[in-house]
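re: that complex we talked abt at group meeting.

here r the seqs, copy pasted straight from the sheet so there may be weird spacing, ignore it
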Amino acid sequence: MQWSEEAEVIDTPVLERVLAEALRNGGDFAEVFAEDRSNSSAMLDDGRVEELASGRERGAGIRVVTGDTTGFAHTADLSERGLLRAAEAASAVARGGGGSRSVDAGHLSAQGTSGGRGDRPAPTTGSKADALELLQRADEAARASGDAVSQVQAGFGTSRRRVLIANSDGLLAGDEQSRTRFSVSCVALADTGMQTGYETAARTLGFELFDEVSVEELARTAAAQALAKLSARPAPSGELPVVLAGGSGGILFHEACGHGLEADHVVKDASVYAGKVGQLVASPFVTLVDDGTVGSEWGTFQVDDEGRPAQRNVLIQDGILTDYLWDYLRARKEGRVSSGNGRRQSYQDLPMVRMTNTFLLPGQDDAEEIIAQTPRGVYVAKLGGGQVNTATGDFVFGTTMAYLIEDGRITEPLRDANLIGNGPEILKRIDAVGTDFSMTPGTCGKDGQSVPVGCGQATMRLTGVTIGGTAE
Amino acid sequence: MSTVTEQAEETTEDLLALAERVAGWAGTGEEVEVYVARGTETEVRAYDGQVESLTSATSAGIGIRVVVDHRLGFAWAGSLDESVLGETLAEARDNARFATADEHVRLAVPDGVEAVPVDLWDEALASVPTARKVELALALEAQARAADPRIRQVDAADYGDVASEAALVSTTGIRSSSRKTSGYLSVGVIAGEGEASQTGGGYSVGRGFEELDPARACDDAVTRAVRLLGATKGPSGRSTVVFDRRMATTLLSIVSSALSGEAVAKGRSFFAGRIGEQVGHPGLTLVDDPTDPRAYGAAAYDAEGLACRRNVLIDSGVLRGFLYDTVSGSRAGVPSTGSAVRGGFAGTPGPGCRALTLAPGPEGYDEAGVLAAVGEGLFVQSMTGVHSGVNPISGDFSVGAEGLMIRDGRLAEPVREITVASTLQRMLLSLVAVGADVEWLPSIAAGQTLAIGDMQISGA
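got the structure back, here u go
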């Protein structure tokens, strides 16, 4: 098998024979997921281009579903022999009468959503030299931001991923996803110690990301964070009102409820949101959407990793829970269709219910006014990440740039801290949502698999959150 | 040379031969390092008395580093197909053209330190039939469900095993190979009482099948979930915090990133420039020793093919050393400490820990002993937001926590939805007690009950 750019990953007649082999022992459903991915990255650190790396990976994951049991095997051997061997391994669970019924693997036909790029323009490719120039420009801009900037690391990464999905329902779909990211992290040094700043831009685009994003701007933002925190005081300890700036504040929704709305948690009764469709679960200011079709956001794709087209799903409407997120398996059990949220890290992983781009729709309030009307609290300009326990709803999210709000004004910078809350309680404490919507990219980890996601919201206020600082 | 190492060489002979062949394609003036690896894995997930999923897989890949005129290029491929090998080398070579020339960039050369053999291979694992693995996963799930009437759900009960082999060959004289098996049982439960739910996880790990103990994994998960039932948001204030063994491995792993010679050289460690200074409590002695066969991260060779060795990092609170690979060592003007680690064939080596331990506290300092010594405080059994609230460069430390209050030297009422905060620098100095209860958990650090004073708790 050549690693040629344009060859089909696997021919259709081969796919049909592999699906037939997968169902030879019985089973309700079989699927071939093939992937061909190439990555390249470059890192500038300590003033030097330290490492350019390239990687290439291709293979297929085959699953056979029999009742509630899934057999899965993956292989890097995309020859018919290799695929048949994987199909046989995956079908082992159906052996011995485990299968509730058998289906024939019929002829495959391309679905309406045959994937590919659709009407999007072809992603452009930058040369290695182009990428290095961007890294150098970012390094210079960060170092020019202040004498206290003591270290800069800039990273560029791009990947191209072609996927092909065929299943025993006759589905044949594919997608081609190009993703590019650029990040800058800075260290600033003073008598008070070291502080860090980090900024990243990431889109489902090729090199044309840089038509939209200024690497100098990213570098200056990262440097400004590190510099500002040199004079930061310890974050408060205890409960205070919190205003979250637009963009990274969306991590709050990703953690506070997004994960809890994933049907795999819900059907196992491992989510605080199980059984709550139709109920008021959040402040009326909350309308939450998960949408894999938005522009070129980081969590955007044409078809998911089970061949379903990406779609827009409203999860919470004016505070009322309207639906969960579904993949093929969990939807099938409930007699409905997937919401286009079946995703996997690579062909070596089983798909799971995952978010795409998850965001709060903007509200009516003016962002400046929200701050002005907060006598005392914390303003979070940037969140760095978070974590949730879906069964209890308890979650944390960490600040990487935060300030005190005193008398309705943003004043002193604060050192990094986690904030902690309980999802269903926090969602009811949202009392203002602004009009200044923006999105931010992130990497979401679940059960050992990482996928690119987007988060977003407008400036908003929580009436009280526990802040985990060290100041008494 | 030890028998174990020789044995590894025998079975990985074909991988060594492959790596040698590719390294042989090096051009004039090129240094080439070839890392090849392959593995097989099985994973069984049980749910509700049935197999939810059964995964069986094999994988293989190659990672090549090329150094030309002190410029480094890297490329990898998730395949060992003949057609891929040359392409990967060519790509690594091309990448090298673009890197900045740096006198410190070089591949490892043999340093004469002999490898200490460690036996990480359980021959029997390969012959365990899948049916027995399935049985074990089902038994684990059933046992967890039956363990306590308050267990409402077992949301994950997994059996997994991995057998991996790797070989490393370079044109600078490196030739090493290794092989390793590991198995695990892991279970997650949800306990409920009235409206409240709490979760707990437990596991059992081993090199082979027979070491896996479902009762142990269940007890751990069930105890953790059930004792949290009724938890309320704990009180705010300053307190001594006792971290259980599992949490202690997380703390040591965080500290270890500041002990990386690369982080130090690049001004990303709060330990930079502090060798010989008192950075910790006099009771704190920290050693990385991958030659200890009991350690989960035990290894004969590091990721550059040099012998792993014992490195003392902090001795009685005084900072003594950092961990170096070849490049970071050269930058600091010292030899590699045999501490290169890499994330498989798709990653490049960098310095890191494999088997950290603290010198144990006095005899009798198991968990109960440390609790008794502390008297009053907070016992932490789980932490969240470690990636979002701990900054190993500035040292700021703030994590979400669940656990139990310590009253009269014993565990008392459960608490949740609180944060525990300090700075890593202060935590090292504020050590109150180190357990003697060393347990090698699946981590780069050993588990030992740890008590740290003067931490800020944010709660109700």
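couple things i noticed - The domain at 128-162+175-230 of chain A is CATH 3.30.160.150 (Double Stranded RNA Binding Domain). Chain A has a mean pLDDT of 92.
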